[in-house]
Specification:
ten-stranded mixed beta sheet, alpha/beta, disordered N terminus
C-alpha cells in the first residue's frame, strides 16, 4: 500500500499505532489510481485519534461520496496521531498529518476534507497543520502552493474560532472554506467544480484557490469562504432521499468496528430542546422510507460484510414505521441496536416497551436533562416526573440490565431544585427495592455549553468551576446516599474551553495559535495548562468582557452571523425569552398536557426550517406513531428465539497472506463478503461469520501476524442450504469431524517466514527458537545437516505438549522454520525480537503461516 510513500515513513509505518488499520487486503478496496494519474488527491482528516472516532462514520461517508463523484481521484484517510505516534513522527521530522494508504504528508494532497465532530477537536487543527508543513494561516503568497482545506461536520456551525474575522476577505484562517449542513447532495457538485479548475498543481496556488472557491461556492450555498459575497445557508438533504443502489462500498478500516454499519433512519430532530445544537441545526425532521432503509441494510450486509446494524437517529422511536422496520431488519443481522429514543414516547405509546424487550433490548438511556421540572422547562424538555417515574418502574419490572439517566448542570439550579432531585433519587431507590431488581442505574451529569444557533446562546455564561461544583456535589451526595453510581465531568477545563470555542470569544483564534505553538492538544483529555493559557490570552485581548459573558440581546453579534441557519434568529430569541420566564414562573407539573415542543403532529411553530417546502410541513403535521400490535410483539419474541437457535456450519478456510494482521471483525466481514458474492441468494440466510482459531483472544497468543489454514464458523438459519450453495467453491472446505464448542489448536504445522532485509536470516529464527525452548525448560537436541537444522525433543520435553518437532532451512519459499506444535508464538516472538536486536538495528517481525491443522481440542 505504501509503495509510493517516502522511505522514511515507510520505515516507521509498522511501529505507528494506526498501522494495523491498513492491511494488504484493503489495497483494492480503495479503488485508487496511481498517485500521478489521479484527477485530485483528497485526504479525509479526522481531528481525533482513530480510537476516539472508530464508532463514527463521517469519514466513511465522505470517502463514499467522493468516490461516487470522482472515480479517478486518489482518496485517503488521516487521523490525529496519539501521543506515542506524535513522538515517533516528530523525532523522525515527519509530518503528523499523513495518509494511511499513500504514506504521504498532508501537504502533498490537493484537497483536505476535515470532519469536525465536537468543538474541543478544534484545538488540534492548527497543531496538526503546523506540524505537517502547512502554515496555520490559510492566507499565503499567491504563488505558494498548498492543499485546499475545507472543514465541515456536525460541529461546523460551532467552529467560528478557526476564522479570525469571518467577513473580512483578508483575515487569517486555519482553513480555506467551511461547509455547513448535510453534504449528501452538496459534496459532489463542490468536488466537480474544484476538479474543473485548471491548475499547475499539485495543490493550489493562491490565485487558483480563489477561482476554485468561487466556483465551489456557486455550486453550493452551504460553502463559505472568507471574502464570499453571496449568501451562505445550512443545507439539508431532501426528505426520504437516499444514496442510489449503485453506491460505492467504502474501504473498511481494520478495526473491531469493521463489521458495524450505521443506518440513518431519519435526519434532523423534531424537538426544540433549548440546549441542543442538533435540535436547531438539523431541521427539518425527515424520515427515510422503510423499503429504502431495508435496501441499504442489505447492501451493507452484502458489500461491506456488516453483521451489526445500528439504527442511527437522534431519537429512533420518532420514526413513523419503526416497528415494521425493526421486524424487517431483525432477521438479517445477529444484532440490531437502537440507542437514543424519547422517553415520553417509550412511556406513552402502548406496547412499545414490551416490543423493545421482545426484540432483545436490555439497556435504556433516558435524557432527563434538568434536575427538576423547573430546570426542564428552562431547557424546553417537556418531560415530567409523571412520565419518568412510571417508565422507570416498568423498566425495573422487566429487569432491564442497565438504565442511564443523563442530566445537564447550568449553574442556575436553586436549593429547591436540588431538594427535588434528592427526593427523586430516593423514590427510585424505593422503587428498585420494591421490585427486587438487579438493574444497574447510572446517573450522569454534564455541564451546559451554550451552543451557537440555539436559544441558550443568548444566556449568560458560567466560566467559574465553583458555580457548577456547588450543584454537582449535592447531586453526587444524593446518589451515593441511595446507592447509585454518579458520574460528573472530570475536568472543568474542557468544559470552559469548549464554551469559549463554541461561541467564538474575541481573541480565540490567536489563543488557538498559541496553544499549537506551545504543543498543547486535546487527546482523550485536554493537556494541562491549556485553559489557563487561553483564559489569560482572552482576558488580555478583552475576549472575556461583560458583553461576551453576560446575557445577549437580539441585536448582539453572535458566531457566524453571516450564516442563514435552519431556524430564524427571532424564533430562537423568543424561545430563550420563554426559557428565562420558566425560571421565575410558578412551579407546574410537566406531562402530556404541557405545551408541546415538537413539530410532530402539531401546528407549525414557525421556526423557519420548512420555508422552502410545504411538503415538509405537511409531513410533520400529519406524522403519527403506530403502537406495536400483540401479533408484532409475538413475532419479535419468535425472532429472538429463532436467531438464538440458528445452527452453525464449520468450514476449513485458507486465510490469505493479504489478511495478515487482520482483526476478528475485519476477518468476519471479509468472509461474509466472499460467501455472499459466491452465493447472493443466501443473503437472507446467513447471519454471521467468525474465524474461530487465529483471530480469537486465545488465538492472538500465537501472533497477530498469522495467516493460512483456519476454521470459519458460520451461523445461518438453514446450514444445509448454505452448504449446498458453497459446494464446489474452492475457498471453502467442509469440516467433517465434530468440533469442540470452543476449539483451540493443539497440534498444527506452522511455517515461520522471516521478512527479507537486514537481519532477516536463518540464524535469527534459530537463535530465537533455541532461546524459547530453553526458557520453557524443554529438553532437546539440535542437529545440523546440509544447511538444515532439526530440533529433536526429548521424551521429557514432549510431555510438556509445547512442541513436537521443529526444522528449519531455505527452500523455494524462502527462509523459514517449520514447527509441529502446540506453541506459544507470542512468547517466541519476544525471543525473536531479542535475537533480531542483537543481529541488526532494523527489521520486521516474521510472518507465521499455518500450513495444516492436525488436532483441535478444547483446553477448558
Amino acid at each position: 500500500m505504501l509503495e509510493e510513500a517516502g522511505p522514511e515513513l515507510t520505515k516507521l509505518k509498522n511501529t505507528l499505532s494506526v498501522a494495523p488499520l491498513l492491511i494488504d487486503a484493503q489495497s483494492q478496496e480503495y479503488g485508487n489510481p496511481a498517485w500521478a494519474a489521479a484527477s485530485l488527491r483528497i485526504l479525509i482528516l479526522r481531528l481525533s485519534p482513530f480510537e476516539d472516532v472508530s464508532r463514527s462514520s463521517p469519514h466513511l461517508f465522505l470517502f463514499q461520496t467522493c468516490r461516487e463523484a470522482l472515480k479517478d481521484a486518489y482518496l485517503d484517510f488521516a487521523f490525529f496521531p496519539p501521543a506515542e505516534d506524535r513522538a515517533l513522527l516528530s523525532a523522525a521530522q515527519l509530518p503528523l498529518g499523513y495518509g494511511l494508504a499513500s504514506g504521504r504528508g498532508m501537504a502533498d494532497y490537493d484537497i483536505v476534507l476535515i470532519s469536525n465532530a465536537y468543538v474541543l477537536e478544534l484545538v488540534n487543527l492548527p497543531y496538526i497543520l503546523l506540524h505537517s508543513g502547512i502554515a496555520i494561516d490559510a492566507l499565503k503568497d499567491e504563488k505558494e502552493r498548498s492543499p485546499l482545506i475545507i472543514l465541515g461536520g456536525s460541529s461546523a456551525g460551532a467552529a467560528s474560532a478557526i476564522l479570525s474575522d469571518c467577513q473580512d476577505g483578508k483575515a487569517p484562517a486555519f482553513v480555506d472554506a467551511l461547509f455547513f449542513g448535510e453534504g449528501e447532495d452538496e459534496l459532489g457538485p463542490i468536488l466537480s467544480a474544484l476538479v474543473a479548475i485548471s491548475r499547475s498543481g499539485p495543490g493550489f496556488s493562491g490565485a487558483e484557490k480563489a477561482r476554485a472557491l468561487q466556483a465551489a461556492g456557486e455550486a453550493s450555498e452551504g460553502l463559505f469562504y472568507p471574502g464570499k459575497t453571496t449568501k451562505t445557508s445550512q443545507c439539508h438533504a431532501p426528505s426520504g432521499v437516499r444514496r442510489p443502489a449503485s453506491r460505492q462500498p467504502y474501504p473498511l478500516l481494520n478495526s473491531e468496528e469493521a463489521g458495524s454499519y450505521k443506518l440513518e433512519m431519519s435526519s434532523g430532530c423534531p424537538s426544540f430542546c433549548g440546549f441542543c445544537m442538533e435540535s436547531w441545526d438539523r431541521k427539518p425532521y425527515r424520515e427515510t422510507q422503510t423499503e429504502e432503509l431495508l435496501d441499504e441494510a442489505l447492501w451493507a450486509k452484502r458489500y461491506l460484510g456488516s453483521s451489526s446494524l445500528e439504527l442511527s437517529s437522534f431519537n429512533f422511536n420518532t420514526h413513523a414505521d419503526m416497528v415494521s422496520l425493526m421486524l424487517k431488519l431483525g432477521p438479517l443481522f445477529p444484532r440490531v441496536s437502537a440507542m437514543s429514543q424519547r422517553a415520553d414516547i417509550l412511556q406513552n405509546l402502548p406496547g412499545l416497551l414490551a416490543f423493545e424487550k421482545a426484540m432483545g433490548k436490555r439497556s435504556f438511556t433516558i435524557g432527563i436533562e434538568g434536575i427538576s421540572e423547573r430546570m426542564r422547562l428552562y431547557y424546553a424538555k417537556e418531560l415530567g416526573e409523571a412520565e419518568i417515574l412510571p417508565l422507570l418502574r416498568r423498566l425495573l419490572e422487566i429487569s432491564a440490565r442497565e438504565i442511564k439517566l443523563f442530566y445537564i448542570i447550568s449553574g442556575l439550579e436553586s436549593q429547591e431544585d436540588l431538594e427535588e432531585f434528592a427526593a427523586f433519587v430516593k423514590e427510585i431507590k424505593l422503587m428498585r427495592s420494591a421490585s427486587s431488581s438487579a438493574t444497574r442505574i447510572i446517573f450522569s451529569a454534564g455541564y451546559l455549553t451554550r451552543m451557537p444557533g440555539t436559544p441558550l446562546a443568548f444566556a449568560p455564561l458560567c466560566l467559574e468551576e465553583s458555580c457548577l461544583r456547588r450543584i454537582g456535589g449535592p447531586m453526587k451526595s444524593s446518589c451515593d446516599t441511595n446507592g447509585f453510581e454518579f458520574r460528573l465531568p472530570a475536568y472543568f477545563d474542557e468544559y470552559a474551553l469548549s464554551q469559549v470555542l463554541a461561541l467564538g470569544a474575541p481573541g480565540i483564534f490567536d489563543a488557538l495559535c498559541e496553544l499549537a505553538q506551545s504543543g498543547l492538544v486535546f487527546d482523550k483529555n485536554l493537556d494541562r495548562g491549556a485553559w489557563e493559557k487561553v483564559r489569560a490570552i482572552l482576558q488580555a485581548k478583552g475576549g472575556l468582557s461583560p458583553e461576551f459573558l453576560g446575557e445577549k440581546t437580539l441585536e448582539h453579534p453572535q458566531a457566524f452571523d453571516f450564516l442563514e441557519r435552519a431556524t430564524t434568529t427571532d424564533f430562537r430569541y423568543n424561545a430563550y425569552v420563554k426559557a428565562k420566564q420558566a425560571l421565575s414562573a410558578p412551579k407546574r407539573k410537566l406531562g402530556r398536557d404541557a405545551e408541546a415542543s415538537s413539530c410532530l403532529a402539531a401546528s407549525c411553530l414557525g421556526c423557519g426550517a420548512c420555508d422552502k417546502s410545504a411538503s415538509e410541513r405537511e409531513f410533520l403535521q400529519s406524522h403519527s406513531l403506530r403502537a406495536p400490535s400483540l401479533d408484532e410483539r409475538a413475532k419479535a419474541e419468535a425472532l429472538l428465539k429463532r436467531k438464538a437457535a440458528a445452527p452453525f456450519l464449520h468450514l476449513y478456510v485458507d486465510l490469505p497472506l493479504a489478511m495478515r494482521g487482520a482483526e476478528a471483525a475485519y476477518i468476519s466481514s471479509y468472509y461474509q463478503r466472499l460467501i455472499l458474492s459466491h452465493c447472493p441468494d443466501q443473503l437472507d440466510n446467513v447471519l454471521h461469520c467468525q474465524e474461530i482459531l487465529l483471530s480469537t483472544k486465545r488465538g492472538r497468543e500465537f501472533s497477530p501476524n498469522f495467516y493460512g489454514k483456519s476454521i470459519l464458523r458460520i451461523q445461518a438459519y438453514d446450514i444445509q442450504s448454505l452448504a449446498a450453495a458453497l459446494k464446489g467453491c474452492p475457498s471453502f472446505e467442509p469440516v467433517r469431524a465434530e468440533l469442540p464448542a470452543d476449539p483451540c489448536i493443539a497440534e498444527a504445522e506452522v511455517r515461520i517466514e522471516a521478512p527479507a532485509g537486514a537481519g532477516a536470516s536463518m540464524k535469527v529464527l534459530e537463535t530465537a527458537l533455541s532461546a524459547y525452548l530453553k526458557a520453557e525448560l524443554v529438553a532437546h537436541t539440535l542437529e545440523k545437516k546440509g544447511g538444515r537444522s532439526v530440533w529433536r525433543i526429548a521424551p521429557a520435553g514432549l510431555k510438556k505438549r509445547i512442541i513436537a518437532l521443529a526444522e528449519s532451512g531455505s527452500d523455494n519459499e524462502g527462509i523459514g522454520l517449520k514447527i509441529l506444535a502446540r506453541f506459544n508464538f507470542h512468547r517466541y516472538l519476544g525471543h525473536y525480537r531479542d535475537a533480531l536486536h542483537q543481529a541488526t538495528s532494523a527489521g520486521e517481525m516474521p510472518q507465521l503461516r499455518m500450513i495444516s491443522l492436525t488436532r483441535l481440542v478444547n483446553f477448558e
